[in-house]
Amino acid sequence: MGCLHSKTTHLPSPDDPSSQLDPANGDQADEELQVPAFKEYGLSELRKATNGFSTQYIVSESGEKAPNVVFRGKLENNRVVAVKRFSKLSWPDAQQFVEEAAGVGKVRHKRLVNLIGCCAEGDERLLVAEYMPNDTLSKHLFHWDKQPLPWEMRVRVAYYIAQALDHCNTENRKIYHDLNAYRVLFDEDGDPHLSSFGLMKNSRDGKSYSTNLAYTPPEFLRTGRVTPESVIYSYGTVLLDLLSGKHIPPSHALDLIRGKNVLLLMDSSLEGQYANDDATKLVELASKCLQSEARDRPDAKFLLTAVAPLQKQKEVASYVLMGLPKNTTVLPTMLSPLGKACARMDLTAVHDILLKTGYKDEEGAENELSFQEWTQQVQEMLNTKKFGDIAFRDKDFKSAIDYYSKISL
Questions:
Q1: Are residues 145 and 95 both part of a single domain?
Q2: Same structural domain for residues 377 and 297?
Q3: Is residue 352 part of a domain?
Q4: How far apart are CA 378 and CA 407, in angstroms?
Q5: CB atoms < 10 A from the CB of 118, how many?
Q6: So which residues are the catalytic ones?
Q7: pLDDT at 17
Q8: Nearest to residue 315, comparing CAs of 26, 22, 27?
Q9: Are residues 318 and 349 in the same domain?
Q10: What range defines the domain where residue 394 resides?
Q11: SS in 3 state form for the chain?
Q12: What is the pLDDT of residues 322-360, one digit of tens each?
């Protein structure tokens, strides 16, 4: 499936608010209640949700070897989702695709970008997942705009990824392919989540896993296979990203670590944000994960126990640490035909709808009360509205707008 190159920064999309969790220990049961049950979607529904798979709705796309594209979409219930569209040659067996997606859809966790549906109609193969509006770890680490990712947030990312991997292990999903900074996405509260797309098997045969790894584990070069220990190796490369703020080949990083040149490994923008002991512990963990022999690497449980004590600001929300504005967007309801016409500024459509629904101007309304009970100002307003109604009825929209604009409410 390849690395995803994010394009989410300036999308004019409404976000899908969800429950707020404690930054460190959100309640999993409550979170899972917010995630809809996995389902098969109709192609027409997903086509409509993405405006016909419009290029304007693309949020990320992979390389040429696996031309898969992720779109932002909004379902009829106003839920904003990510829709991954595979190339037409992917997954020739539709039933196999649905079964694999449904299996991944059962793996639910507060630290995952949960998979909530799929579609397999004709040549189309699509996955539907929760939408993460605050971009990828790659963006915040390597291409930040306002501030570098602070140390405490980097530790939180490392811990949350470890939580996700540990849960996948307990669900017997021990293989996560292509774990890298593009696979970590941030929700509306700034909390990091691991993409569920990485749990899907290879799109060609439905049996093996992708081999497009950020840094290939040594055992893959020997056997051509990805193992659970390979995932730990990839986790070590993500730790290097978090520590350095840039891509560092594991071999070079290990040389620095062995030479006790840890400071050369650290991101200079983090100066003064961490205790040297904490940095050393995270560097040592990365070193363990990057061992050339798979059997010498730790498991996911070890990752949790190693990173948990390094968290020092659990009570601070992620969006605060990252300097993100708090999302207070209220999700709009579905617009009526009249509302859609107004949004399009389609005056002809507005006119037709109003006439069909029995619109009548207020001719004669000024006679309901005696003239003496009205001030001259109100009388002028009524006359102006009357002229506007007449112009509107005659489809003279320019004159109608001019009259209505003069009314002081």
A1: yes
A2: no
A3: yes
A4: 10
A5: 27
A6: 178
A7: 35
A8: 22
A9: no
A10: 337-406
A11: CCCCEECCCCCCCCCCCCCCCCCCCCCHHHHHHHCCCCEECCHHHHHHHCCCCCHHHEEEECCCCCCCEEEEEECCCCCEEEEEECCCCCCCCHHHHHHHHHHHHCCCCCCEECEEEEEEECCEEEEEEECCCCCEHHHHHHCCCCCCCCHHHHHHHHHHHHHHHHHHHHCCCCCCCCCCHHHEEECCCCCEEEEHHHHCCCCCCCCCCCCCCCCCCHHHHHHCCCCHHHHHHHHHHHHHHHHHCCCCCHHHHHHHHHCCCHHHHCCHHHCCCCCHHHHHHHHHHHHHHCCCCHHHCCCHHHHHHHHHHHCCCCCCCHHHHHCCCCCCCCCCCCCCHHHHHHHHCCHHHHHHHHHHCCCCCCCCHHHCCCHHHCCHHHHHHHHHHHHHHHHHHCCCHHHHHHHHHHCCC
A12: 999 876 443 444 456 766 666 666 777 777 777 776 655
Identify the domain boundary among 299, 322, 345: 322
Q: Are residues 229 and 262 in the same domain?
A: yes
Residues 318 and 341 reside in one and the same domain: no
What residues does 192 pair with on adjacent strands? 186
C-alpha–C-alpha distance, residues 336 and 357, integer Å:
13
Smallest Cα–Cα separation from 194: which of 286, 297, 108? 108
Q: Are residues 311 and 237 part of one domain?
A: yes
Residue 155 lies in a domain: yes
| Tokens (6 digits) for 153 | 């947030």
Check residue 366 and give its pLDDT: 44
Residues 289, 292: Cα–Cα separation, whole Å: 9
For 115, residues 6+ apart whose C-beta sits below 8 A from its C-beta are 38, 101, 104, 105, 107, 127, 128, 129, 196, 197, 199
Helices 228-244 & 151-170 angle (0-180, nearest 10) = 170
Q: Residues of the chain whose pLDDT is less than 50? A: 1-33, 63-66, 328-334, 362-375, 408-409
Alpha-carbon distances, residue 109 vs 26, 113, 200, 236, 390 (angstroms): 11, 8, 16, 22, 60
> Do both 140 and 240 map to the same domain?
yes
Say how many domains are in the chain: 2
**The last residue of a domain, from among 271, 288, 322:** 322
Backbone phi, then psi, for 374, in 5-degree steps? -115, 145
Predicted pLDDT of residue 358? 63
328 located within any domain = no
How much is the pLDDT for 24? 41
